[in-house]
Amino acid sequence: MESTPGHTPLIHGLPDEIALICLARVPRRFHNVLRCVSKRWRELLCSEEWHICRKRNNLDESWIYVICGETGIKCYVLAPDPSSRSLRVMHIIEPPCSGRRGVTIEALDKRLFLLGGCSWLNDATDEVYCYDASSNRWSTAAPMPTPRCYFVSASLNEKLYITGGVGLTDKSPNSWDIYDWATDSWCAHKNPMLTPDIVKFVALDEKLVTIHQAAWNRMYFAGIYDPLDRTWRGTENEIARCFSSPTVVVDGTLYMLEQKLGTTLMMWQKDTKEWVMLGRLSDKVTRPPCQLVAIGRKIYVIGRGLSVVTVDMDTAARVDGFLVTSSTGPLVEQDLSPDRSRVITI
């Protein structure tokens, strides 16, 4: 940050390098206030330099975005609250496409993407909306090559992968659309080895685990897609047990919340290729159906009404088979159901 004639310093009397470090230490919940101070500060908070500085000094903060679609799309923004060791609602965002159904939500870096969708009056759309958490603004991104709604998606290595859904034509039943944020562009990709029955993506170990449901016997099986060489191969079907369960990856390890007989947190063992139980959670505090999301080494179980159960993977212990956790009651009055929501962090 070099000074030039007529240059306005970030903070009067301080070199911009020092001022940047000072401002970067302001907690994220006050960033909206910083944006209102001056145009220079607003531009700074939207810059890559700002994010690099916060990451380099371990000041980067992730918030949880719960996108509910029960009565129009609403996005509840939750942030860790050190005083309660849980989460609290920071604000509520209403996207431009709030009246749609079947919208798919993904995240890349500090950006939230709402893709496709449909309504009672309109067929599937190819529109894409992007929310930039740095500027707190919505914009439009490049439209998808294929209009879709109710489809499968994943984010991996700064790219979005989507497939399946309603709205496809007979020319594209097996198409994959891949979005690159760096160029704001899509490419359509078709691999004859892939079957059009994918029900879930899981980004794991720089690859996409694909969960399929066979049309002939309704059984579930799994495969692995390598984005580097664009090849697909079959894999152990045991991992496909997570086909309908919420999952989250923490430090390269896949976790699943099984909710068929109570609420149980499971972990995928890569060496033995099997799911192992970490511990049970009380339904009285989880309030299922639930979704999973992680910040750092903490897994948050989001239940009805945005109730929160926190599992610290560094300190979690079991007592009579139950995991020791902290929890808070519903954060909102509405009895929102997370099984019809998407929960991500940016």
TrEMBL record:
Occurrences of domain F-box (ranges): 14-54
Protein name, entry field: F-box domain-containing protein
Keywords, ordered alphabetically: Kelch repeat, Repeat
Highest taxon listed in the record's lineage: Eukaryota
Pfam families associated with the record: F-box (PF00646), Kelch_1 (PF01344)
InterPro entries: F-box-like_dom_sf, F-box_dom, Kelch-typ_b-propeller, Kelch_1
